[in-house]
Amino acid sequence: MALEALGVASSVIAVIEISGRVAAICFQYSKGVKDAKSEDNRLLREVNNLGETTSSVQDLLDGPCETTLKTSSKLLDAIEEARIHLSKLKDDLRPSSAQKAFRRLRVGALKWPLKSKDVEKVVKQLGRCGQNISLALQVDQTLSNTLYRNVALQEVPEYVIQHDASMFLEHQLAKIRAEYNVTVSEDRQLPLTWPGYETVQALVWMATPLFIFAANVCRYLADLRWHPDDQVAKVLCYQTKTQQSKLDTSYRPVLDPLIEGLDKVEKVELLQQFRAIVGSIIILTRPFSFLSLARILYIPKRTIEHQLDGLYSVLSVPNVSDAPVRLLHLSFRDFLLDPDKKDEKPFWVNEITAHDTMASKCFRLMDDSLRENVCNLKDPAALQTSIDPERVNECIRDDVHLMGRVRETIDMMMALKGLLATQNSEELSELIGDAYRFLSANMGTISSSPLQLYPSALLFSPKESSIRNLFDNSIPQWIRSWPDTQSRWGSCLQILEGHTGAVHTAKFAPFSARMVSASDDRTVRIWDMNTGECLQVIHNPVGVNSAMFSHDERLVVVACNDGIIRLWDVNTEECVQELRGHSGKVSSAVFSSDSKLVVSASYDKTARIWDSLTGKCTMELRGHENEVSSVAISRDSARVVTSSFYDQGVRIWRTLDGKCIGELETNDYSYARAISNDASMAVAGLRSGSVQL
User: Spans of the WD repeats (predicted)?
Assistant: First the structure.
């Protein structure tokens, strides 16, 4: 077993085991806590989905002699993140020993330990984990048509692929043989050597280098409606020597039988239906259920079910109507959409046409279904958390909506703005730009109190806002006096609300659209800069003066009032390191560019350099006569700049030996400082309102 797969296998087993335990705990709560039924069901559904996704990884890892598929660090990271979130959830849900004792004595009731916002956060985390695992797994299983234009397949040793494929096929074919033999009389059973060494080797050769072929062909042969020998013969007819046509080898044995024996008219009709249904499934970002597909495509559910009956080996087709229909592998999408095969493949799907059709269907569905106050709420100030999810489901009926996902519309608007930038449509661009500003300014209100969209968000928008003017008829008539708002949107894009104390610092993440803020209210908050949403709240023991992401955004370094620098893990929200040594409160703490060092400034008149891994102080910088208020480090970690509010100066230090190599007079109290990437310049912000370079 390869070392990479060993790590994945152990994490997979842990995730499946913890998923089962969490599901069991949720089931206990569903029986004992009536008030939390809807939240418990949401959580249980998400946990089961994650467990099912992870089980699919185990199916690929399990095999005779414990053989494994080659896996990537992304898959391991995704599964490990899921394990961490599930472990924390299990601890949060587990009843206390006192509760258990009372329950045994039949005294007191089991109480649901999570708040609605906690459930919402966990559901999002688990959903993201499931998506990350699925994506990493799809990439790991094979190199799709999209990928092998950019990846040198010769770098993967052919014998490695052939060995893995051979072991996988032998194991799966043995299962197929056993399952078939159970269903027939003894004289019709397949021999123990079936399908034979030469056939297995031919299939192995066909599976190189696209391992997904092995998985597809086994699903194809497992369909016992046909004799396994006949199915094998059909597959072998598609042997090819060219790598680009390996996808044909994988998918044509499944698709070609759909049109065999049909006349010209019947073939055209079936292919049109195939493109309408399967063509829609393969372009969807989020998979839909039978019910949702039927509603959005305006095609009867029975027609969709019948169309997908023969596609179990290429699509994950559920047995129930409300479960999503999923791609088993992204290469099926690549196979159908490949523009180079337009004239060669009868099942080719025009991607542009498919998206255009889907967009038209969406507009039609919105026109038929959308209306103001769809849940018939009586109170316009009703909070989103007070709305019964069951009532929402009754009103919406399926998952073809953005209920509870309004923040995603910000990303949609940004994407649409980018598309329109290349189009000659000034009026539409202006409308989308205004809609983006409207959503950004009112995201908090819309998310927490949906019906306030009309009496509040619209009413307080600028007078010349296109969105306000389009929907001003929706502003309630009982509002007699309208506020005197500004004419146009100002330069402020977002107001991030949530802190209850003074905010001392706010810093952007190095790469993602996130920001971290530090406050006197003993919290560090992480924000989505596109939506203004508070993604996480890290609760610190004392007030926080500064916070900063590490270079990989996994850690946040926090300067605390109790003289301690704390390193917090963003994923687990646990303190993983405490840097102790300062005798006064820490005013500022920053990472070096590689996050190996932490530099801190303190009211004890010193700055310190720390090893972030060991937590040891490696250097103490002394020289300021008053408390050190801020600190910065150059990109190459060779220089440190410190400033003191009362010293009226900036000092530059060499990290190699801790020597002060420069002292710059500012002639005023210095609030903040920074250093250029090449350490050739330093800048200070002064009380007078000027910036000195």
Answer: 496-537, 544-578, 579-620, 621-663
